[in-house]
Amino acid sequence: MKALTQTNLLLPGQTAVYHGKVRDVYSIGEDTLVMVATDRISAFDVVLPEGIPCKGQVLNQIAARFLDATADICPNWKRAVPDPMVTAGVRCEGFPVEMIVRGYLCGSAWRAYKAGERELCGVQLPDGMHENERFPQPIVTPTTKAELGLHDENISKEEILRQGLATPEEYATMEDYALKLFARGTEIAAQRGLILVDTKYEFGKLSDGTVCLMDEIHTPDSSRYFYLDGYQERFEAGEPQRQLSKEFVREWLMSEGFSGQAGQQVPEMTTEVVAGITARYVELYEQLTGETFVPATDINEQRIDASIRQWLASR
């Protein structure tokens, strides 16, 4: 299988293009965005040198499904899926923060907790917690939204308001939406035998000031899932959880001595490593949707260009 790691389209009405860590975003006119989910993969805010076949399609199709499944909770930017790797929708003015919702103590939060920290983004954490333990209630721990090549930084609600990154009303709306979206994602995951552990949401404003959900939602790039079966037994035994997320990529990188620090060399991504990452993405898609994953054919820029042009012409 081939990986599509870059697009350089020139679409009708195109006014700008932005190449992010994993997505290429094309602006059409004043109010339309076309987002191509490439097969690039990032970890520790570094884009890794090898693409992961099927990854873009998995992300795009899961995100589209969850945007539809949560549209009754809050407005979102999605309007169409012209291609298995493409979503098109309404341009939003993004807030420069990401709303992280955590239901369990793990990942970077656990690493900080184990090092002795008891406050995360202004949220006080109780003593005596263990790795992968469920919080009494989900917590919101925002981060800044860093530019390409820079690290996201934890930030508190108070600091967001002090810096004017959102008004008190806008922040309250984002927090309310984030917790409700997390609750819906938790319900859907449980129906599929999974636990939604943590995730991130990005919000923006429409031209009329309405707060709107942007980007992806509940994908393996933005979320962490545990298998529900065996969770309690593994937790009580202090064993690692069976999980479906991008955390295994981070863990592999750390085991090879890479954590995104200056001067570190990204380890070699062999054919076997790449194939294993693809298999994990496909596994999550099938577990989360209950459907067999069908890879798109003709993975190339020409197919995507034709699909987008056909959608633009039909509007």
Verbal overview:
- The protein has 315 residues and is of the alpha+beta class.
- It has eight helices and 17 strands.
- Strands 8, 9, 12, 13, 14, 15, 16 and 17 form an eight-stranded antiparallel beta sheet that branches. A five-stranded antiparallel beta sheet has the order 1-2-3-7-6. It has a two-stranded antiparallel ribbon with strand order 4-5.
- Helix 1 packs parallel to helix 7.
- It is globular.
- The model has no long low-confidence stretch (mean pLDDT 94).
Poorly predicted parts = none
Calculate the mean pLDDT score and round it: 94
What is the H-and-E element order?
EEEEEHEEEEHEEEEHHEEEHEHHH
Number of strands: 17
Topology record:
Elements: E1 14-19, E2 23-28, E3 32-37, E4 42-43, E5 46-47, H1 55-69, E6 78-83, E7 86-90, E8 93-94, E9 97-105, H2 107-114, E10 119-120, E11 123-124, E12 133-140, E13 143-144, H3 157-162, H4 168-191, E14 194-205, E15 211-214, E16 223-227, H5 231-237, E17 243-245, H6 247-255, H7 271-289, H8 301-314
Antiparallel strand pairs: 1-2, 2-3, 3-7, 4-5, 6-7, 8-14, 9-12, 9-13, 9-14, 10-11, 14-15, 14-16, 16-17
Helix pairs in contact: 1-7
Structural key phrases:
alpha+beta; 17 strands; about 325 residues; 5-stranded antiparallel sheet; single chain; about 30% helix
